[in-house]
Design a protein that fits this description.
Layout: H1 9-19, E1 29-30, E2 33-34, H2 46-59, H3 65-68
């Protein structure tokens, strides 16, 4: 399977045909963020931000005032 990253569709078709590969997409997450060939939008970061907020709220009682700031 060939996954395009910054490659025009025309070149991808030529390369996939030359090597006998199928075309694929980036349809998975890495470190909680979806991977794709476009620049991530603000909404793509929301699951990661909410996860960090949940973890920080649990340990904030253990931090000093300077650590909380």
């Amino acid at each position: 399977m060939m996954v395009p990253i910054n490659l025009p569709d025309g070149k991808l078709d030529i390369l996939a045909g030359t090597f006998g590969c199928s075309k694929g997409t980036l349809a998975f997450t890495y470190l909680g963020l979806p991977l794709h060939t476009e620049r991530p939008k603000a909404q793509d970061y929301l699951p990661l931000i909410s996860k960090c907020e949940r973890r920080l709220s649990g340990i904030s009682s253990l931090l000093s005032l300077a650590g909380r700031l």
